[in-house]
Amino acid sequence: MILRHFGYILIIVAVYLSSTSATTRKHHRRSTENDSRHLGFQFEVEPQRNVTVAESSSHLLECSYVLAHEKYVQNVRIEWKRDGVVLSERSSSKIKVLSNGSLWIESMSSTEEGTYQCAAHVTTKQDQTVDTWTFLSRKATLRLADLAKFDLQPTDRTVAKGQPTAFHCLINSKPIPSAVWLHNDQPITNGGEYHILPVSNTLEISSTQSRHEGTYRCTVEGAGKRRSSQTARLTVTTGDVSNELSFLTTPRLQVIEQGDEFLLECLVASRIRPQVRWLKDSRQIIVDGVRIRRVGVSSILVSRASIEDTGLYTCRASNNDDSIDRAVAVEVRAPPKITTRPATKVAVETADVELECGTAAARPEAHVNWYKNGEAIIGSEYFVIEPNRLRILGVVRADQAIYQCVAENDVGSEQASAQLLVDAPDSSSVAASSGVPMTASAPLGLRSTSSGSRFINVEWDPPVQRNGNIMRYHVFYKDNMIDRERMINSSSTSATLTSLQPSTMYLIRVTAENEAGMGKFSDSLKVTTNKEQAVPGKVTSLTATATGPETIDIRWSPPAGGQPALRYKIYYSHDPLEKNEKETLITTSTNHYTLHGMDKYTGYLIRIEAEGSNGSGLSSDTVRVRTQSDEPSAPPTNIQAEADSSTSVRVSWDEPEEETVNGEITGYRLKYKTKARGAKGNTLVIDATAREYTMGNLEPNTQYLIRMAVVNHNGTGPFSDWVAVDTPGQDKEERTLGAPREIRPHAGIDYILVSWLPPADEQNLVRGYQIGWGLSVPDTETARVTASTTQYKIARLNSERDYVISLRAFNNLGSGFPIYETVRTLSRETPHFNDDSDSDDADGGLGSSESTPVGLRAEAISATSIRVMWTESDETAFNTQYTVRYSTAVDGNQHRYVNSTETWATVEGLRPATEYEFAVRAVASNGQLSTWSMATRNRTLSAPPSSAPRDLTVLPAESGDPHSASLHWQPPKYSNGEIEEYLVFYTDRATLADKEWTINYVAGDKLSHQVSNLLPKANYFFKIQARNEKGHGPFSSVVGYTPSGGAILSGRDRNSPRGHGVASADGTVSLVEQFKSFVHENPMTLFIILAIALVLILTLILCSMCCRNRDGSGGRRNGYQSAKKTSSGGGVVGVGGPPNDLWINGTGSHMRAGASDYMVDGLATAHLTAVDIESPTPRFHHLQGQGTLTRSYHQSSQSLEGRQRTPQVVYTGTGRHQPIHKIDFDSPYGSSSAIGSASTPPLPPMQAIPSGPPTIIDGYRTLRGTPPNSSAANALRSFTQLAGATPPPPHSATSSSSRPTIIAAGGRQVPVGRATAQPRVNVANIYSPYPCSASSDAGESDRKVECMEMRETTPIKTGNNINTNMLPSHSTEDLNEHLENLDTMLDDLQQLQHNLHLDTSMDKQ
């Protein structure tokens, strides 16, 4: 029994050892390390890639190898190929293959140029089987040296003394030829003032002097040849040199090979030598003096170039005024390098083999080709070529060979090889002691469950005799017409065969494998794939080329097989794909298409499908393309400027939006200037990596304007708006800082928002703030922010915990005193709490802090809009809406609201240059409201003024200069920004275009201006315009003015809206000009008006004559009556003929400014005669109230004789700056009754009836008439007006004041003298054509006064009695009466014509 058990144990051990031995033997055969069939071939030396050989010289191309295993090697043969053709020593006596395999070329000529490759053929023999293995070396290009023609030659130059200059002498040849420069045919030595640059042989002169004048030329030698350039002349001048930067030489586009050196030239001229910096891809180049060194004046030389040196190089020259850039691309080309080499493998027939071949980055991109024993492999169903590998499906014995991947580009090639050994399937088995095989029997029931045009699904049953554990199943299948069989493995009793051909019969069989090996095969199963509907094949030769910043040109070739393509589908998307992005589809029927409207400097993925009648075929390979770059389309964002000291300003900014850069940022251009008019700006260019810059050497107590732009390789983008910053008058002291004035924490569930106010001592410099926090203790964690920051968010906190917040300011002396606050974060279980910060909400301010938006910021977009952005605190929130609240102090902080579904909102319709405050809260999908976020503020951008300056008035100059005028105005109501200046326009011809008016520029903080060099008695027109930083506003109304030297005008001149020394607010032109324009434009209308006027005049004359004849010599009741002088008691003062009537003055009655009688407040007063004072025309007869005029008028000499004349001071305007006029009624024609008792204050400017033209408006001036006994006193029979005098109230009482009054602003009356009581006169009746204008409802006493008649000196008939005290009438008096009536009618006609012209002008406007 024991022996039986022992025998069983021996059998088991024997079976185990046999199985182990078989497995070991099988694995040993699969290993290549100890397989003698493995050759281990390797090229020891390969021919050099690119060689340039001089003509008629000899050259050796080396090729040697080593073998690791030579057991079965019988022969090794080396042969050479040129351009793919095998070379033979018999065909050329110049070629000889040496014993070591190298190729000797003797006497190089052009026929020997080409691409050479070495091929090694190794022959082995094993078990009567002879195999040949072929290995290919890398390729070598052999060229004949030559000296090319000149690319650049020296040209004539004229240079200012002391400036640099350069002459070119460039030939692109390899090797680089040597050059010799000649000045006036004398060789130049490199060094000192002369710099001969390497590579390009450019001659630079660092500082041109007179001794450098003359001729220059260069001589170049190379490849056994010599070339001389043309001769150039240098002329040196001594004129002034501009400080403008200009390039003399610039870097040129270069394509070089790895390991070579390249030169980047840059020479800049300017009056002040500029600073030149070099940048590569927006980063400054560090000149180490070894690999990168400076040559010449400002050029650089780069040695041992590598692929990493490929990029965009920028020469940046700058001085104090400007900065200029010149960029150029440098491409370093390198041959490919294989990083993953294919490995030698031993495979079993029917197995699939993969050989990998990975390459490193090469410029240009390398193409990988596969070779089998020196023959190129063409992709097929069983040889699948993929980008980095070769797959051999269903290996057969014939596939045993050397497989090589050869990567090549225009620079060179690289190869890697692998040996593939193929064995027959292993049929060994382990026999038991009885000799029965231990492998599994054949699987049963092999069947096809489904099939298509490209696949077959098969199933089977396990074998009956497994003889152990079934490890796997092997499924073999092949095309019925091809001997190559393929195999797949399966761990179950089913498998899917893929990548099949349609309408093809396949033979399928299966076997099981256990520990002993593969068992018996099942019977073959024949299955035919389905027929496939024909579709177009894959399009080929797909290329995509960027033709501009927004265009891509796509071209392809039609598919080679399948159904003809009816149309093509173009799919493109961003590279890389954006979030939730889908491909864009475009359909076209041609094999080329241009995409428009693409994003600038953006990568795209493009593929194409050909579509036929049965659908689309396979998609093409995806190609990548990037649109070209362009100038930046937006400036930097968040530009801030802070004064670091009285002489320095720190500017900080953020990068612009990525889609607006349109390339790679190479720097930022910063311009700054003072706000003074005509200030010269300075320009700085800052590196692209910088985010802040400190400007130094500034002026203290000065406002600077700063703006920035983005710079890329294509140029400079748009500049930002000006940012203003003021440098303090003196530097702040850095002392120990006090605590911040206030800290305001706002707690959330997992965060705390902290805001604060700076320390109270504003003279102490603050450089930043430090925030600290911790659980129950402060400063466990800290963070620092800048001095301009007043808010910080502490995130990632625990809920329902007490945190101690600390805040302190710091400067260079250290941290200041802290301020502490304990804050408890909110509970997650408390969704609502009362929010008192928004009491104006209808919901009572109920809200949740969990979803309160954070990080609120406002960015001004335009003059009327601000974009508000925030961060969603609850990232899990869904369908959240937001409400933005905003207000401004201009509207009394009235809240307005805007809704948004995004985390941003643009608030429109705002006022320009106005600060607004914003807050936002979230509205959840269930209606739950969050608390309002912390507020942020920002100001809208400025805009041109939308209204004109107000209240423009023109006054005589305060100095009394008759050739000057003083203008006063008020700022525009809507300035839309700070007014920088006012533009005062004036001219003596109102019809001129605006550009032809004379312009005076006035600083924006001034509200008055004096215009000089005016001509007396010339009509001038004034208007004013405001300008801010954004542009000009509208014009004000035109105001007319005529300089007069201080005298009052004649009555006819006062008919014009612009009398001498008088300003008119309506801006109309003179009557003469209006009349000329009216005649020119409306001649027929003028004739009709004149005819009607003539008929009216004749009719009135006839009526008056009839009335005289009917009334006889009686008193005149209807019409004008002669005015006679009377005493205060009403008696007759003078008797005689009627005086001369000056209502129509043939000799003219223009005013004459006499000598000053005395000075009032330093201003001379004009002495007037009675003949200088005339009555105003009916144009100014505007009544207000109950029949009184809007201004005071003088009574006639008849009614004012004998009254005491007392000086009066009259208020002449409503503005606080307008002067008060003192008037001395020293003549018998002045009346104080009309101006001495004004109790009603003047109306506001926009409400009062426009007053007549003021005659005396500059200070206190006294008007004196002719003495009462003057002969001219009897001549004045009409009435005159005191312009600007305040009219009396309609029913003011008789003046009983013993002192005259000063009527000033606000209606205050101040007695200044004594005056006798004067009768009340209704001046409205003075200019009535009838002697009485009392209404029927007036009181009796009023009617008596208002119907006061001016008595005649002729007797008046009363019934049949004649008053003997009256003198008889004379014929001249009658004539005068008619002339008075005619004069009045002519004036009325002129007024009618004037009104008609005004109406016509208004209609044209």
From TrEMBL:
UniProt membrane topology term: Single-pass type I membrane protein
Cellular compartments annotated = Cell membrane
What is this organism's lineage? Eukaryota, Metazoa, Ecdysozoa, Nematoda, Chromadorea
Which CDD domains does the UniProt entry name for this protein?
A: FN3 (cd00063), Ig (cd00096)
Q: Which Gene3D superfamilies match?
A: Immunoglobulins
Q: Which UniProt keywords apply?
A: Cell membrane, Disulfide bond, Immunoglobulin domain, Membrane, Repeat, Signal, Transmembrane, Transmembrane helix
Q: Where is the Ig-like domain?
A: 41-131, 148-235, 245-331, 336-421
Q: Report any Pfam family annotated for this entry.
A: fn3
Name the segments for region: Disordered.
614-658, 830-854, 1113-1132
Q: What is its main location?
A: membrane
Bias (Polar residues) ranges: 636-650
What is the protein's given name? Protein sidekick
Q: Which family does it belong to?
A: Belongs to the immunoglobulin superfamily. DCC family.
